[in-house]
């Protein structure tokens, strides 16, 4: 299933009659979940209206390297950094030649030079231009530089010729963009993830819980599925949409989560314990709602089972990855957890900072194993999850 959820795409529209299809490309990318910003070249503007692109992309169209206001809002370097992928569709013969020479004489060519994002080129031109040796050499050079060429189609062209050079269909362009993010590094692997908070009942109406939203765990689920894994989620209390492609088991308390994990753990290759499991629960749960009889009250707590540590102690167990939610002595505390719980890796996040960690859309983490401690810089939880999964796959499953 193609998916571009949370992906940021810059669509570069250059001068070709096929530019009239660019609003449809924007729509197709959005349909797969992407946020799209459009850069249009002078040539592109001749064939498609800025207003259509702006209305459909729901963002101001970028067209001028020298526009002070636009640079203040989102400068060309920011735009280059913002993108996960830049697609030039249609890519005219002139734009392709400019890329080969590394020119930076307009916004699109400058952003391309400044970006670390993946670049996709969808050529569109007359069949003879496309068949020329100059074009063949140029495309070969761009391929060598790691750009992905979305091959044009064969058929009737705007000029009346019949041949190769028609812009690939918008749906095909969107699909190929989504394919960039679908790897098979975890294909055939079974992955179990716990996520969200647990609720520990005090009485029929009250409970002890925490601020976990499930966003980090759901992003991991998404990344695992994108990487080809069969993914099972043990879901506590969350406030995020469910990843429908995973098998879902809902639980409430830490005890429920423990039981659900133990039932599923046997067949897993990787266990990621992302849930914010309550360390303690009320020693007794009142059958009836507790009455207010005094100005203060004491609730006696007792320890919950440590799910992660229990899995790590199983005789046959999967690769086990925990999360450490820390507010001080971060790395030191995370290393202690790695050792005490006997897991293979710990993902450390700082839950004292606003803007990352609990209930935020972004995170910043350290991936810690016995041999490495690697920082993954602040980004959306989806990007952080993809980087974590990539690194776990490289570390633990590369040779199998
Ligand atoms: O859900 P979000 O809003 O997106 O926030 C994500 C998160 C901050 C909750 C997540 O990134 C995170 O840090 N999860 C772990 C939170 C936690 O319980 O940390 P801890 O340091 O207390 O526990 C260490 C590890 O032991 C964790 O993997 C935890 O799942 C596990 N644990 C803890 C207690 C327990 N009884 N059983 C466990 O398995």
Morphology call: elongated
The major β-sheet equals: 8 strands, mixed
Quote the average pLDDT: 94
Overall number of domains: 2
CATH architecture descriptor name of the largest domain: 3-Layer(aba) Sandwich
Structure explained in plain terms:
The chain is α/β, with parallel strands linked by helices and 400 residues long. It has 2 domains: 8-179, Rossmann fold, CATH 3.40.50.1950; 190-396, 3-Layer(aba) Sandwich (Rossmann fold), CATH 3.40.50.10300. Helices cover 34% and strands 24% of the residues. The protein has 15 helices and 19 strands. The protein has an 8-stranded mixed β-sheet with strand order 12-11-8-13-16-17-18-19, with helices on both faces. Strands 2-1-3-4-5 form a 5-stranded parallel β-sheet, with helices on both faces. The two termini are 25 Å apart. It binds ligand PMT. Ligand PMT is lined by residues 212-217, 254, 273-277, 279, 304, 306-308, 322-325, 337, 349, 351, 357-359.
Topology overview:
Layout: E1 8-13, H1 22-31, E2 35-40, H2 42-45, H3 50-57, H4 68-74, H5 76-82, E3 85-91, H6 93-101, H7 107-114, E4 118-123, H8 127-131, H9 133-144, E5 148-149, E6 153-156, E7 162-166, H10 170-179, E8 190-195, E9 200-201, E10 207-208, H11 215-226, E11 230-235, E12 247-250, H12 254-264, E13 270-273, E14 280-282, E15 301-303, H13 307-312, E16 319-326, H14 330-341, E17 345-350, E18 362-369, E19 373-380, H15 381-397
Parallel strand pairs: 1-2, 1-3, 3-4, 4-5, 8-11, 8-13, 11-12, 13-16, 16-17
Antiparallel strand pairs: 6-7, 9-10, 14-15, 17-18, 18-19
Helix pairs in contact: 1-3, 1-10, 5-7, 6-9, 11-15
The protein binds ligand PMT.
């Amino acid at each position: 299933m193609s998916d571009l959820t949370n992906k940021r795409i810059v669509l570069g529209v250059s001068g070709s009659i096929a530019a009239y299809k660019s609003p449809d490309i924007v729509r197709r990318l959005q349909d797969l979940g992407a946020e799209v910003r459009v850069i249009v070249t002078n040539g592109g503007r001749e064939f498609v209206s800025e207003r259509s692109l702006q209305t459909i992309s729901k963002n101001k169209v970028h067209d001028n390297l020298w526009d002070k206001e636009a640079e203040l809002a989102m400068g060309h370097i920011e735009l280059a950094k913002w993108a996960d992928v830049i697609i030039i569709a249609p890519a005219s013969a002139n734009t392709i030649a400019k890329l080969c020479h590394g020119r930076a004489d307009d916004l699109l060519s400058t952003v391309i030079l400044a970006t670390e994002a993946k670049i996709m080129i969808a050529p569109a031109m007359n069949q003879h231009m496309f068949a020329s040796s100059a074009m063949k050499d140029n495309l070969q050079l761009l391929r060598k530089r790691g750009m992905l060429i979305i091959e044009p189609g064969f058929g009737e062209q705007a000029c009346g010729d019949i041949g190769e050079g028609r812009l690939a269909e918008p749906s095909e362009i969107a699909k190929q963009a989504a394919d960039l993010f679908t790897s098979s590094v975890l294909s055939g692997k079974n992955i179990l993830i716990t996520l969200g908070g647990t609720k520990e009942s005090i009485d029929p109406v009250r409970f002890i819980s925490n601020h976990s939203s499930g966003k980090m765990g759901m992003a991991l689920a998404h990344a695992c599925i994108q990487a080809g894994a069969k993914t099972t989620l043990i879901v506590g209390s969350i406030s995020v949409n469910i990843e429908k492609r995973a098998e879902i088991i809902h639980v409430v308390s830490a005890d429920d989560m423990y039981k659900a994990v133990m039932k599923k753990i046997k067949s897993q290759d990787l266990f990621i314990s992302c849930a914010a499991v309550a360390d303690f629960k009320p020693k007794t749960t009142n059958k009836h709602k507790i009455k207010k009889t005094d100005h203060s009250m004491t609730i006696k707590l007792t320890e919950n089972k440590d799910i992660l540590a229990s899995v790590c102690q199983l005789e046959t167990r999967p690769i086990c990855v925990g999360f450490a939610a820390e507010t001080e002595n971060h790395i030191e505390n995370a290393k202690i957890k790695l050792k005490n719980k006997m897991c293979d890796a710990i993902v450390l996040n700082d839950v004292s900072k606003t803007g990352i960690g609990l209930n935020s859309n972004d995170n910043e983490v350290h991936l810690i194993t016995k041999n490495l401690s690697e920082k993954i810089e602040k980004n959306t939880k989806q990007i952080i999850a993809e980087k974590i999964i990539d690194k776990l796959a490289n570390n633990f499953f590369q040779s199998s």
